[in-house]
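SWIM-type domain-containing protein, Centaurea solstitialis. Tokens?
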Amino acid sequence: MDIDPTLIEDAPEEEYETTDMMNFSQTVVEGDLLDECNHDTNFDAFDAPIGRVASNEEFSPAMVEEEDVITQFPVETPRGSKVWYPNVDVTLKPKIGDYYESVSVAEATYRKYAEQAGFDVRLSNKKINKLGVITGRYFVCSRTGKPPEKYFDSLDVVPGGRKQRNSNIKRTGCQACMKIHFVKERGRYEIYKFVEKHNHELFIPEEMIFLRARRQLQYADHRVVMHGSTSKIGITKAHRMRNALKGGTEFSSCTARDYLNFKRDMMKHVGNKDAQMLVNKLENRRKVCPEYFVEYKRKDNELISIFWADETARLNYKMFGDVISFDATYRTNKHAMIFVPFVAIDNHKSSVVVGAALINGENIPNYTWILQAFMKAHGRQPLFVITDQCPAMKQAIPMISSYLAHSTPFRSDFNKLVWNVHLEPVVFEKKWNEMIDSYGLQGDGWFDEMYRIRESWIPAYYKDCHMSGLMKTTSRSESINAFFNVFAEYENDLTGFITAFDNAIDEQRGKHGSLEVTTKCSAPRLVSPCDIEAQAAKVYTRRIFFDIQNELRKAVWRCGWGTCVEDGETKIYMITHKNKRKEVKATYKVVQIKKDNTIDCSCNLFVRIGILCRHALKVMLNDESDCIPEKYILQRWRRDLVPVQWLPPSIRYGEVDVDKHRLMGKAFNVFEHQVARVRQNNEALSNFVDYMEKWDFANAVDVPTQSQSEMKQASFEEHLGVAVPENAETLPPTGIRNKGCGTNSRMKSSKERAISKGKKLKRKCRLCLQEGTHDSRNCPTRDARK
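Tokens:
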């Protein structure tokens, strides 16, 4: 940190603080020693001699013969113990009386020396004044201090209690250190004590990468863990990817366990306040953007349901909300809350989310509430809603008959009958009964139920409904659920879930933007000199234009003329529909009224999907029409309806510093670009590395390095985008058991059940007076006695 000398001169040096910047009392998951910081709180505690270690005055590196010197000087004391002196360049070795501009510069110098010497550094005691300015600092060897005392008594072991941990001891009482204090006359920090010797063997350079200092996670590692967890990238895979990108273990010595510990700390940082943080985050977005909609419901302080829709989702519904679909999906968060996205189809025939909800169970009150919230957000009802049946019905068909479940003729006949949009209801009912009789399905419960609700799912009954052909099943919802499951995982809390949701929406809208740019910046290849095709290429999106182009092609090659009846301004055409073998499969009636430029076909394609069919286009081509009437160009299929949204939610709603975010992105890009430039030239690459190291050292005063705890805390706040509240009024739900969650019991074989039964203690039955595993209530002789 930067020091104002006037602060130090005016403030009395009365306050002391003992710190250990590495939190050795923190429990790691496994593999690491549970270190305890047991050093003395006295500021001069490390000056005391420990054991039989010789002093600098008694022994020196000069006592070791030159041919034995490699990386360290082992020196044996008269009492038989050893001390080690590092063999490093004199220019790197600190000297008593050296001055530094700041504590961070002194720390960087000592760490650089320690790296060459072969030991790790720990920040120990510091002396501060009443203004919080550091006036003294200790840098010690990581093996300084007494080993923690642990007691174990085999006579006092609690059955089923926690197993005694068998850990290693790292503290050896090493006295190696560097101590600095602030000199008022010079306005700088001075080294007033430097102990070079160690009472333990030092590490060679190849071993240094495994020391704790090298295993500290950097900011980039934090980003990999946090963003990986919200993109469904596991810890092990994220660690392997990071190692590969950095060039191997030599340059990335932190382990997958370190990554896992960091994620654990992040989850612990949030605790059980994630529901409150989710509510706060969405309400903060509403304050920044009034068009952002959010409503939630809680009971007994537990979150029951929450619905949200941002400004783009509401605009999407305004443009494309004629037909929507929604379906529930599971395993998106650790609280087992059910995720319900509402899906529509945009002008590129892609799925778009127009709202989303989380509920604590699939029941009528919850669905009623989220539908009311949906209506409040969008202000109008959709024309058509596709929902799913009970999941149990999905399993009904295979249970009817193993033959029918795998019968190709049955499935073919069933699909042709059910999804034929050209059938009339009377014809459908007749053919349904014929199919039931043909396959012997009379009296089957499932087919009887499906026939009873036929008006809710058979296209023949709603083919005249506007835009009913956009979605026939919940496949759009199932597809969007699978899409979200690529980002969300069941281990995430609710804050992690909303971040994963934002990432998924970003990708979805990025795809929409890409399609918009493709439509705007390129022209499709026309297959005919027809003016109608050229007009369609200008007004429709690229995907819809290809549909129109296909209808035009089939109007020429698959449609034929039947009869034509003219009645004043009205003409009635009978257009035949042919297959690939030129066989007439159907005939459709096209009614044309030239007075008001109206054309209507009995196939109802325009009503069901919103584009003119091949039969109507056949008539228009025959009349040499040069354009499609405006009334038949629906607004929902035009281009440039919804603006392209590139900014992520964290920037749009002010959850991060926008300038900082952009500068960081630019810094990463510049660095990667420079590395790509110099990677083929070793000299240029060496100069680039030297320049970056010099820049790092020169800016150590102005831009001090954050401690690990400070960096971790800052990463948490940056990733979450919302502060952790002190008190949580809204808690996550508990006790959720969704469909198909199981009973936590597995099937057992008869042999295993017999073995388990044989282990039961036998008792005497009061009814048969025999010893066994039964009693009088379930005695085998009970029924016989009656």
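Residues 388 and 394 are 10 Å apart (CA to CA).
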